[in-house]
Design goal:
Elements lengths: L35 H9 L18 H10 L12 E5 L6 H13 L9 E6 L2 H17 L1 H6 E4 L4 E4 L5 E6 L12 E5 L8 H7 L9 E6 L8 H14 L7 E5 L11 H7 L9 H13 L1 H11 L13 H6 L13 E7 L7 E7 L4 E9 L4 H8 L3 H6 L4 E3 L6 H14 L1 E7 L4 H10 L6 E3 L4 H16 L9 H9 L2 E3 L5 E3 L9 H14 L8 H5 L5
Parallel strand pairs: 1-7, 1-8, 2-5, 2-6, 6-7, 9-13, 11-12, 13-14
Antiparallel strand pairs: 3-4, 4-5, 9-10, 10-11, 15-16
Length: 542
Amino acid sequence: MGMRGPGARASKKSTDQAVKPKRKKATLWSRRGLSRAERVIAFVESLPITSGALAGQKMVLRPWQRAIVESIYAVDGKGKRHVRTALITMPRKGGKTALAAALALAHLLGPEAEPRGQVYSAAADKNQAAIIFREMEAIINAIPEFADRVNIQRFAKIMEDKETGSVYQALSSDAKTKHGFSASFVVYDELAQAPNRELYDVLTTSTAARAEPLAIVISTQTSDPKHIMSELVDYGQKVLTGEIKDPTFHATIYAAPDDADPWDEAVWHACNPALGDFRSLDEMRTSAEQAKRIPAREAVFRNLYLNQRVDGTARFVSSVDWRACQGVVNPDALAGMPCYGGLDLSATKDLTCLTLYFPHDGSVLCWTWMPAEPSLFERERLDRAPYHQWKQAGCIEVFPGKCVDRMAVARKLAEVCAIYDVQGIAFDRWGMAVLQKLMADDGIVAPLEPCGQGYKDMSPCIEKLEEEILEHRLNHGGNPVLTWCISNVVVSVDPAGNRKFDKARASQRIDCAQALAMAVGLAARQPVKPPSVYKERGFFAL
């Protein structure tokens, strides 16, 4: 592989004058008398910590981490490594990324490097795949000897060691090219998040030409029993119990038993070896307290903090907390008051919903629309919702035909902006182009602000809405359509713990809940205005 590419460092120009080769500096991991595992451990502990409170200090493997390395790099009488596949599964924040980056460097330029080796880190998407790359890059840049010998192409996420000719590349499941590899070392980060097993199979079957290939999976568990991650965990458990004899497969499994008490701190410590060390016990206690009260967070807590194979689908909030937010809302009394909106637009099947959230007292106003076709009777049967009753109560407006009347929605926006002090209306970009054109043609102006529906944008919105409900600061007035949508919500979680409402997995419609979350999230993003000095001290006569 060439030394050029986007982001690559400039190479020194060649000269005719002979350069006397530098004498190699002795390394800690090249000392005589060390076992193969001890060389890897010495290499890892020579690397610097690159971020956090301990940045600049050397890595120090804990006894449980040393045990993992010693098991993976154990050798037979001929010095050959037994293990070809290693599974390390534990809760999040257990130092998985730092260990994965260190082992990848050991195979790129350290004691495990081989001539023209191929080292890969893999992940579910580009952002996740870049995490190990960035950690390796930071370590290399912190060590002058490594920085001199490694060519880094940041854009392509590729590194090449000039001394061994070995290359490293970060790959993701959405990469277009997944074939043509001859891997000597693979580390798959958060395999549980992979959409399928294709990349894993391609990489692990590409090692046939290597004498001692190694594939390491470092991940929390998934709730899907048919996922490749679950397959590896089940196999690893059988190896650990002796049901299967396979010296080429190593499994380290830190997970709470299914019947364990999730709130028992002794259970936490048993499955989190770093807890109280570099994994915060206080943060775990805080998360546990929240999970006790929030059904959706209990599943997340058990999966990410206890590494249990649990389904993340659960109610967003408890009915008790939601009912506690059911006060009396007087729309007339809210006239002229500042508020923030959320608009979830639909075409045919879903509901179209507009909510207004008033931060000063937590009041919520909600308007919902739906097309008349298919018939309300048919939709009631499919959705198991009393649409006729809600229509008669004025909670849903039904339009003739198969589509929502977007002009009616546009006029409602104009109406609420005339009555209330609407600071902004967050909207999902889907289908908004037609509505915005109708508004422009009719001279309707509203402070619309786009809001993404992915993890990054929705997670802060969900967190703030959750907080308002749990603290009983929200006042939804008992709107039955909004209450129904809230009860249908299913929350999905990404590897970083970010959340979003998952329409595909929801039991029924969640459109009003989505609109409310966007409205509350938009309000939370606004800067807090300092109180007026006149309110604090009054006026002075001159």
